[in-house]
Amino acid sequence: MKVLVTSDSHGRANLLEQIVDREQADYVIHCGDFCTEKEKLPNVKMSVVRGNCDFEQVAQEEEVTLAGYHFFVTHGHRHQVKSNLLPLSLIAQDRGSDIVCFGHSHFPFCEQDGKKLFLNPGSIVDPRGYTVPTYAIVNLGEERTVDVTYFQPNGSKVPSLGGSFVL
């Protein structure tokens, strides 16, 4: 199963739509700070959470199970993600999450901790601490394998990010 994970699009609904159209993912996760009306978000199977810059009333956090993997989705501003991942790790443990998706820092991050994967897709418009804007594609495989690939909004692969993981 192919999952598009994005965050921090900050009002660039047209750019988000272009990425969604190009990737043709089975499911889309937006980790907040979409900063536009909900109606302007792509009309696809999607989880979207509220970031610190969002004005629309959507959930602060969401849980979804895709291909047998339990995802916890949050923006991250309420969990100090710019400092450390301990608060998210405790939530993931408590909720039985396999993959934790978050945004807020605009910095792409993908790391396994035990049987959990922590994933920040970065920002598609305003990278911070990284050279290019990014989003992530997560391929959920059998045998608990997860492949993560990062891309720039123009579709160019970012080979230095992502990897293959066994959860």
UniProtKB/TrEMBL annotation:
Its EC number(s): 3.1.4.-
Entry keyword annotation includes DNA damage: no
Keywords: Metal-binding
UniProt cofactor(s): a divalent metal cation
Keyword Flavoprotein: no
Gene Ontology MF terms: hydrolase activity; metal ion binding
Domain Calcineurin-like phosphoesterase per the UniProt entry, residue ranges: 1-141
SUPFAM superfamilies in the record: Metallo-dependent phosphatases
InterPro entries tied to this protein: Calcineurin-like_PHP_lpxH, Metallo-depent_PP-like, MPP_YfcE, Phosphodiesterase_MJ0936/Vps29
Family the UniProt entry places it in: Belongs to the metallophosphoesterase superfamily. YfcE family.
Name of the molecule in the record: Phosphoesterase
Species per Swiss-Prot/TrEMBL record: Shimazuella alba
Highest classification ranks of the organism: Bacteria, Bacillati, Bacillota, Bacilli, Bacillales
